From TrEMBL:
The keyword Oxidoreductase applies. It comes from Methylobacterium phyllostachyos. One of its GO terms (molecular function) is FMN binding. This is N-ethylmaleimide reductase. Pfam families: Oxidored_FMN (PF00724).
Amino acid sequence: MPNSPILQPVTIGALNLKNRIVMAPLTRSRSDNDGVPPDFAADYYGQRASAGLIIAEATNISPQAVGYAYTPGIWSDAQVESWSRIVRTVHANDGLIFLQLWHTGRISHPDLQPGGKPPVSASAIKPEGTAFTREGMKPHVTPRALETDEIPGIVADYRRAAENAKRAGFDGVEIHSANNYLLEQFVRDSTNRRTDRYGGSIENRLRFPLEVVQAVTDVWGGGERVGIRISPATTQPGETPLDSDPNATYGAYIDALNGFGLLYVHAIEGVTQQTRDAPEGVDLAALRHRFKGAYIGNNGLTLDLAEKELAAGRADLFSFGRPYLANPDLVERFATGAPVAEAPKAYWYGGGANGYSDWPGINGPVPVRRREPV
Ligand SMILES: Cc1cc2nc3c(=O)[nH]c(=O)nc-3n(C[C@H](O)[C@H](O)[C@H](O)COP(=O)(O)O)c2cc1C
């Protein structure tokens, strides 16, 4: 609806947003074998620049971080160059864009790893499910537990990725600490059985993620342009609870994150893409109120639901994932009450421009201004 408070401008920290709508990070697996996003990704993101903030798809910080075929990276110059073209296009269309920094840890496969080696994790615990490789889906394998002295190297990879994101011109970065990728594999006690200073107590399990937050905020000159994504209630990739005491673990995490002055925490509420209900015993509301910065709610939201959440003071911004696949003009559709289109799953991951940057808006093609480097 045109007067929806969700569609009014808002200032969050140093960012002036056109509205409270955030495009959630969406892996689309259209990069080349060197992790370079295609040129038509600039159209895709440019078409969606009417969102208050775009969070670009999860992007690998290093070759070891890769866990899905055709996902982009941010470690090489060619990747930075392609991302900077995307960022320029979003800016030319008056949008703001953050990059999501990703290390998949055990949610990978030797086929995707340098030298065909097993993926790494906090501990050698095999995830349920399958990995998306260039040869199709393959069962996950048992990962190798990282040695204590390898961890500073991964923190350095995050630092370089944060520097490269800055070089590419992004407005900020989001640290991906959700959906059971590497950082969450350290946070949760079901996937972290370490006996060194990175395992055991909550303080120890949070040590590596917080070292990453420190490195990234150092690069960005503080937390003003850094957010973090968490999923305290998700059970993915399996069906079982992933921490023995999520309220204590994530409460301590949020308390520690408060010390970095982060712009926002972006929470997946409930089980990712499945339900907004948290498993019994996970108190998402308490966690939300513990965080001092802005809060982005996500998971199964509609405009109506977002309005209710805002009115109840439960969230500041609202991110939409699946609705952004086939609706480049989602904001316009919300403003006019136009129907929201659904993207068939065949288009979600892999392929070219078809089903990706060729979705029309409600009034025909969504024009994109392209700006060449000066
Ligand atoms: C195709 C697809 C790709 C996704 N890729 C990412 C990703 O790269 N990073 C991430 O944090 N979440 C990712 N997600 C999760 C979404 O950001 C979001 O949390 C989820 O879809 C629930 O929100 P929704 O109900 O608005 O879709 C992905 C979801 C989908 C459907």
